[in-house]
Amino acid sequence: MEATSDGDRPWQSYHTVYTNAKAGMEGVDKEKVQKIIYELSKGSKYFENEKRKEAIIKQKIDNLRTHHAKLTEKEISHFQMIADNRILELEASRDLSKIWLHIDMDAFYAAVETLENPSLKGKPLAVGSMSMICTASYEARKYGVRAAMPGFIARKLCPDLIFVPTNFEKYTYYSELTRNVFSKYDPDFIATSLDEAYLNITDICSQRGIGCEEVAVELRNTIFQETRLTCSVGVAPNRMLAKVCSDINKPNGQFILPNDYNAVMTFISSLPIRKVGGIGKVTEQILRDVLGINTCADILHKGAVLYALFHQCSTDFFLSVGLGLGGTDTPQQKMRKSISNEKTFSATNDESIIFQKLADIAETLSKDMQKECLLGRTLTLKLKTASFEVRTRATSLQKFVNSKEDILIYASKLLRAELPISARLMGLRMSHFHDDKHSPLDPMQKTLTSFLTIGNVAPIADKSTGFDTSDIQLMYNTKSDISVDDESTFLSDVSSFSYESCDFLETNQLSVPDYVAVSYGNGAESLNECPKTQNKFESAEKISDVSNLFDRKRVAASSSQILEPYWVDDYICSACGIEVPASFTEERREHLDYHLADMLQKEECRSLLQSFPHKESARKKRKSSGNQGKYIPIDSFFVKEDKSL
Ligand code: DCP
Ligand code: MG
Questions:
Q1: Cα(311)–Cα(474) distance, rounded to whole angstroms?
Q2: Ligand nearest to the CA of 582
Q3: 20, 28, 272, 427: which one has the fewest Cβ atoms less than 10 Å from its Cβ?
Q4: Looking at the domain covering 71-96+261-329, what would its CATH class be?
């Protein structure tokens, strides 16, 4: 991104979400797109933010390289032994008995819009607005136009681009039609967004005595008959691979990876790591620049160094990727943990307008809660400022409430503490429901588990896997700097992110506030989950595009390993509290990547600190002094860590 390193073509190293190719963008002139994006965004807040992030990542890469260079032969052989053993263990867990199908509708929102307005057929189309587009038709993608790109950039790339505003009612309607079909093939299908789902087709194949290929063709035909929309399908022995496969023959195609060890390993051997859910731009960059890892197969050759540089759970995940392992079991259903409503509007600092918006949001939230007979006692206010800073503030209420008036009293209090402000988005979320069986009736009473989990944490052993999560907890302990008061106040100053949501697990429900990060989770709507040791691939599995999707009780799940922070209630980052809607998949990927980089950095610091105990105690001292401020921007954590080095 820096002009100096690129001479007169600085855009060549300007890699943003927008320049990452999606299906349908194969023949795009990448440099031309990069140049336009670079020129249009240069000087913007987004650009500055990208630059800042890039500098942080570069610093991490340098630190990791230094650490790598210092590894002794003895250390390498020690870690090689660990890696070899772990590979054997992971290999022993391989399950080739299940057949998973991942289905992904093609250019979903754009296809729905075209269906309802056939004059759009064959035209370059973007769904969204000048500030952000949600998706683009395949015709538009040829110009480099893609989801999560600001509309004004898209128009520059494709001057004939037609813009259509979003209409979620329509998308939900068509999504329902597809789900009716899915349930005929797998009643426990896992919907991960409005347009994506995982189906375990093992039973249907054996019951009907047909192959998975036939099921895939039939399913796609049925979807088309029911909706007049096309989709793409991937079939593989696990969900991680099935998702990768569904993207191969997009649009309107399918790819079958047989349930065969050699087929899987051959497939994986040349698969670029970036194709795997959970490996986003930052992880890719770190693995490539520090260790020269480009393909999944490369990972297996670097097991020792990976264990030496990164935390065990990260390396377990990487090795699992290298082995082509992924979730194979159908997870249990989860209960709703929160309910929310938010509104985006033109940035304003007019307090009367802001309070009016707050009242509207409180009213909608109240109605939604009453519809579902929910009473809650933790209220979170989310604000996005004119400069795209996202703040969330939460408070614990004296009683369980669901009326507009009650919600507004507390919400106004939270808002007043933020004034003056120029806001462009506001949202309210209620959690800790009265009927939550893990929530104590007396709000002031902390459960034993929450005490154990929030305080100096005893290692939590996951009985189902025998995995000791103490290390993971330790990592989070370092993150506890983020959390401020008991009801938690978070903020990240990262203004654009990207996605990749998560795996969900069915796990022990610990009774802790849902803003307390207990683990690196691929869990989803609850933070109160312990990590499991299985593979974490489906961090690419998008959860839901609508906040109430959990109602459908088709929550994504995969018994996967915990690696990164995850999206609580489908939109709140468990690590920093920043909120990114599920539909902003790329932004989410980038955001979680950002934390992964943070985590990797911390691991590195931790291992260095182990050699310098006095520095560790200095760090503890800093921590115990507490954070009196309301929040700490995420970057400051990096700064601190760097200092501790
Ligand atoms: N979406 C969004 N914001 C994003 C990405 C997606 O709002 N950053 C919405 C619009 C998409 C829908 O989610 O239509 C599904 O997302 P996909 O990633 O599956 O993209 P598409 O279905 O549009 O295209 P395809 O799957 O053919 O690549
Ligand atoms: Mg799609």
A1: 11
A2: 1
A3: 272
A4: mainly alpha
